[in-house]
Amino acid sequence: MAISYNTNSFLFILVLLLLVPINHTLNSDDLVSELTVLRSRSSTGVIHLSNRLLWQILSVPVPRPFTLLVFFDSQKLHSDSEISLPKLKNEFLVLSSSFHTNNPDSKKFFFFDIEFQESQASFALFGVKSLPHICLVPPFAIDFERDSIQMESSDILRHAESMAEFVEAKSELTVGTIHRPGFISKKQRMCIIALGLILSPFLVKKIVSGNSLLHDKNIWMAGSIFVYFFSVSGTMYNIINKIPIAMVDRDDPGKLVFFYDGSGMQLGAEGFTVGFLYTIFGLMLAFVTHVLIHVKNRNIQRFVMLLAIFVSFWAVKKVFYLYNWKTGLGPIYG
Q1: What pTM does this model have?
Q2: Which InterPro entries has this protein been placed in (predicted)?
């Protein structure tokens, strides 16, 4: 998504370019101390970059004792589902939080976010023309537009893990394990535990008397099918990485795409479809081995067996078709 600047942005840049070479009085240790304090005030370790703070960073002689990773944001574009800035920013926050969890004493790498509406001059100084945009500023960078290293779109769209690979490759620093926040907050866990303790006497009484859902074989059967589908459809991966079911077609914003053509990204609908096909195959196998053997009529057995084989073959064929279409590793047979 392209962005445009007003005239004041370029006037501010001109002033910066005139003043920075003259004034190099800011001590780098003082700036690192200030950045460390600002980082400690953020729950994710991301510092909000303003025009003033950028001027201070520019005032430090090169090579600076730290590297910057900057996420360029715009509140006005948060409603644009095509670029998904809130989701990408959340992945950036996860990256920052994980880095500082794994490297709590590091003063050589700082994460920043910057807002377009309040810092257009800084955007222009970096030469940012479109979003999403993330760049790494090495210690020797003088001209931020020329010397910064821009993160590729493929790395931005592939979540915090791919961003971490970019950081490690360009900065020679180790990010470490990506730590994602839990699905349930601490207060919610406490409420669930309290509710469980309150209900535990009634549940124990039900279980001892044999009059509970745990004694219903149909519940166990339905639960096993659900667990099987949950496992083979990649649902946990979708939840952890917040994978959308579908995405808006870039060529036609009024159309949704449920299958992404390419191995670089997978949508939730793709996993559910393959999981559904696997579940059909598993149910056919379970039906033949546990139900059909009790049918006494041989003709019915043969007919149902052939039908189960046909349905299973169709499901497996569709799985191979989708795999070949997705990866392009083999021929596609209709």
Answers
A1: 0.58
A2: OligosaccharylTrfase_OST3/OST6
